[in-house]
UniProtKB/TrEMBL annotation:
Biased composition (Low complexity): 391-402
PANTHER family noted in UniProt: DNA CROSS-LINK REPAIR PROTEIN PSO2/SNM1-RELATED, PROTEIN ARTEMIS
GO cellular component terms, A-Z: nucleus
GO biological process assignments: DNA recombination; double-strand break repair via nonhomologous end joining; interstrand cross-link repair; RNA 3'-end processing; telomere maintenance
Name by which UniProt lists this protein: Protein artemis
GN (gene name): LOC100907660
Annotated family: Belongs to the DNA repair metallo-beta-lactamase (DRMBL) family.
Length: 436
């Protein structure tokens, strides 16, 4: 759930993933079609303000298409302005003496369909930042991003505003990728469907969109259309591939995606209500948060756990947000001058940055870490120069200042304690023995 305030001080006059009726704001940018990034856009006064002043809401072409498919945004159709991905766009912010040009590049964030990250670049004064919105990208994905690169090497970034949804000590350092999860789920689904031709699968998620590849794969596995509500069907109007597998007719569908949120008999379609307790319906809840809640009591290595009270209910580890490891990869790859968390709930920004810094020891296991455990176990990241140096908590003897030291100097994370502390090597060895 985004807590980002929408403003970047060095980029006055524009607002990102937030909508306020402010005469100083002359352009809006939207990273994707999720409600927690659209605060204020439903306000009739705000919509009137945008229309009256002919302001633009910049987003990816796919996001614009989805927004225009929503009835509640009918008045804003002309305000939505699609920007092609991976192409620099020069936009003038404002129209008075304070107007200035900014170059913005949108690049895929792989959070949901149409989701993007924004690279903002300003010449006077010089400033470059990355706003990730919500994302889920691997280290390999990052290295393919042309918008991060100069002719030689990488662009220097002054700031990164990043998706910190799972950046707390109790989250998994490594979260299985969606592709890995699907490889585990496919045999589970196949077994249930093959037991009886009347069996079927119900898919439950926290949002209406963001599960497109999942639905396409399940439709392939079941060789069936996917039953959805009228509202969900309308969202994908005009989307190649999706419109081919979705139907509002439940009969003969072996995949149902017709209820938002946690499984509920009352909220189910008539067919699911009829079969809810019959054993015909396998209920799959695709939610990282729900999986973690179950995982604490069922420490299995599979990316899904069976509910103890309902053998037909499974919690599947499905995350469209980055793991701590993936955020760390992004930060280490781009080495910005400053970091800013976009999601701050239940802890401070310093806590988030300290958690990332402590994660220089990488766990390969899908292991829930309690606060008392401190660091995860595994291999240490190597420094960027390829040497076999110590972890990021050790003293950096190189001429260049490390990112962690830079953040400490600026007060973004806690400074080293003067008192001696156990070495990371000893702590790592202790934790490895614990897991053996």
């Amino acid at each position: 759930m985004s807590t980002f305030g929408g403003r970047i001080p060095q980029l006055p006059g524009l607002m990102i993933d937030r909508f306020e009726d402010d005469p100083d704001i002359r352009a809006y940018f939207l990273s994707h079609d999720h409600s927690d990034h659209q605060y204020g856009i439903d306000d009739p006064d705000l919509q009137s303000y945008i229309i009256k002043d002919s302001l633009k809401i910049y987003a990816s072409p796919l996001t614009v298409r989805m927004l225009r498919n929503r009835r509640k945004f009918e008045e804003l159709h002309d305000a939505f302005h699609p920007l092609p991905l991976d192409v620099p766009h020069k936009i003038v912010i404002g129209s008075s003496e304070s107007a200035y040009p900014v170059t913005v590049t949108l690049t895929s964030a792989e959070h949901i369909v149409g989701s993007v990250m924004f690279v903002f670049e300003r010449e006077t004064p010089k400033f470059r930042c990355l706003y990730t919105g919500d994302f889920r990208l691997s280290k390999q994905d990052l290295k393919l991003k042309r918008c991060f690169k100069l002719h030689r090497g990488l662009k220097p970034f002054d700031a990164i505003y990043f998706d910190s949804t799972w950046c707390t000590p109790k989250n998994l350092w490594n979260i299985p990728t969606r592709e890995e999860v699907l490889r585990y789920v496919e045999p589970l689904v196949n077994t249930h469907l093959q037991e009886d031709e009347s069996n079927y699968i119900c898919v439950y998620t926290m949002y209406d969109v963001g599960y497109e590849n999942l639905l396409l794969d399940l439709a392939r596995i079941a060789d069936s259309a996917v039953h959805v509500t009228e509202e969900r069907a309308s969202l994908y109007k005009g989307f190649p591939g999706m419109t081919d597998i979705l139907t509002t007719e439940p009969r003969n569908c072996r995949i149902h995606f017709c209820q938002k949120g946690y499984p509920s008999w009352k909220k189910s379609c008539s067919q699911v209500r009829r079969d809810y307790n019959s054993g015909r319906v396998m209920r799959l809840v695709f939610s990282y948060k729900k999986f973690i809640e179950e995982h604490k009591e069922n420490p299995e290595q599979n990316p899904y756990v069976q509910n103890k009270k309902d053998k037909y209910l499974y919690h599947v580890c499905w995350s469209t947000h980055p793991s701590l490891a993936e955020v760390s990869d992004l930060v280490n790859y781009l080495s910005p001058d400053s970091l800013h968390a976009n999601v701050i709930k239940g802890c401070s920004e310093k806590d988030i940055l300290t958690t990332l810094q402590r994660g220089s020891i990488n766990s390969k296991k899908w292991h829930v870490r309690d606060a008392s455990e401190g660091l995860a176990c595994g291999e240490k990241h190597k420094p960027k120069d390829g040497s076999n140096g110590n972890s990021s908590q050790s003293t950096d003897d190189s001429a260049s200042e490390s990112l962690i030291d830079k953040l400490r100097r600026k007060g973004c994370i806690e400074k080293r304690s003067a008192s001696p502390s156990p070495s990371l090597d000893k702590l790592e060895a202790t934790k490895l023995r614990r897991l053996e």
